[in-house]
Amino acid sequence: MSSKTAWIDQEIAGLKQAGLFNVIRTIDSPMDAWVEIDGRQRLNFCANNYLGLANHPRLKAAAQKAIDAFGVGPGAVRTIAGTMGPHIELEKRLAQFKKAEACITFQSGFTANLATIPALVGKGDVIFSDELNHASIIDGCRLSRAQVVRYAHTDVDDLRRQIEATTAYGRRLIITDGVFSMDGDIAPLDKICAVAEEYDILLMVDDAHGEGVLGEGGRGIVDHFGLHGRVDVEVGTLSKAFGVVGGLVAGKQSIVDWLRQRGRPFLFSSAMTIPDVAACIESVNMLDESTELVERLWANAALFKKEMKTMGFDTGQTATPIVPVMLGEAPLAQQFSRRLFEEGVFAMSIGYPTVPRGKARIRVMNSAAHSQADLETALDAFARVGKELGVIT
Ligand SMILES: *Cc1c(COP(=O)(O)O)cnc(C)c1O
């Protein structure tokens, strides 16, 4: 019997057979170093909760207080129902924190990209995009209807070649991820910036995994490379290290003003909620006050990477707290993740199409929330499962 959705059932069966079907775990506790899943506490190495802020008492208190003062929802889009004080305060604080002229917030990092790219380029224009850029950049590029020219991953010479070879264009824009989330490598933004300046091309970086992680006290990739005032647009997220949810664009005042007029997710989708905004302001407060959490994150990551390499695991090209444990085929990565889970460690396997075929991995997300004992527990589990499955000897 045929039905209109039979093809979907076939696709899903195909994913399951190939070991590529996503099984989503239900978390019965706050998002923290340990989470409760299926009635048992598991050590969490999946979340982008880099600084352990997602369940921090200060953020929770700030959100609760803001609900009492401002309620919960924003009511409508900001251009129609008016913008609320806390949103403006958050944007001011983020601009100061990031040493940018101005900042605008969005519902998420994803919508920040969908807002920004089509506002800057359109039909007849050209975008030079790193071939491994995030899905939200790819979708933003598609929405813009500009021509997309992909350059080889983090390859500045290829970027230069592509620029030289592209002669028919209106406006031009270079876009790169700051930190590439599947491998943990960092874009050579200083070199890319030099090329952008040489050819007088607008430059945009999506620093979702660098926000709260890279730079002095987590000020991001522009701060990491000392490029203040030279990168036109810095997209970021409040959903990862900041521990809440939301997106941001920091950069020149004129670009931020323009996004308030032409960023479609700003104009046609409601703003971040009040508790989200208040909690984000508290995240900025905490990062302004102390670099301790950022330092602990990097120390944890350094220890984890060193021990994994000593055991003989391949941890790829990472230069950040993201640690890909390279395993090859998706079924092995899935089996590895399942065995870790049985050992009480929650670390997801990632396969095609998120990463190329044959490059499946366990992606370990380090966090300042982990204690030394937590790291040792995880490393022991990796050693046991790695030997059992013949990945290490
Ligand atoms: C996670 C991520 C996003 C999306 O951020 P959200 O706030 O979760 O929507 C965008 N770009 C990059 C590079 C990311 O890693």
The CATH first-level class of the largest domain comes to: Alpha Beta
> Low-confidence parts, pLDDT < 50 over ≥5 residues?
none
CATH topology grouping of the largest domain = Aspartate Aminotransferase, domain 2
Q: Please give the share of residues in helix.
A: 40-55%
Major sheet summary line: 7 strands, mixed
| SSE run | HEEHHHEHEHEHEHEHEEHHHHEHEEEH
Radius of gyration computed on alpha carbons: 21 Å
What's the number of structural domains? 2
Strand content: 15-25%
Small-molecule binders: pyridoxal-5'-phosphate
Nearest-integer average pLDDT: 96
Number of strands: 13
- Distance between the first and last residues' Cα: 51 Å
Overall 3D shape: globular
Strand order in the sheet with the most strands? 3-9-8-7-6-4-5
Describe the structure.
The protein is α/β, with parallel strands linked by helices and 393 residues long. It has two domains: 18-47 and 291-388, Aspartate Aminotransferase, domain 1; 57-289, Aspartate Aminotransferase, domain 2 (3-Layer(aba) Sandwich), CATH 3.40.640. It has 15 helices and 13 strands. It has helices at 6-17, 57-70, 78-81, 85-97, 109-120, 135-144, 156-165, 189-199, 221-224, 253-262, 264-268, 274-289, 292-311, 330-342, 372-388; strands at 34-37, 40-44, 102-106, 126-130, 147-151, 172-177, 202-206, 233-237, 247-251, 322-328, 345-346, 349-350, 360-365. The protein has a seven-stranded mixed β-sheet, sandwiched between helices. A hairpin with a 2-residue loop joins strand 1 (34-37) and strand 2 (40-44). Helix 2 (57-70) packs across helix 12, helix 5 (109-120) packs parallel to helix 6 (135-144) and helix 13 packs parallel to helix 15. The longest helix is centred in the last third of the chain and has 20 residues, at 292-311.
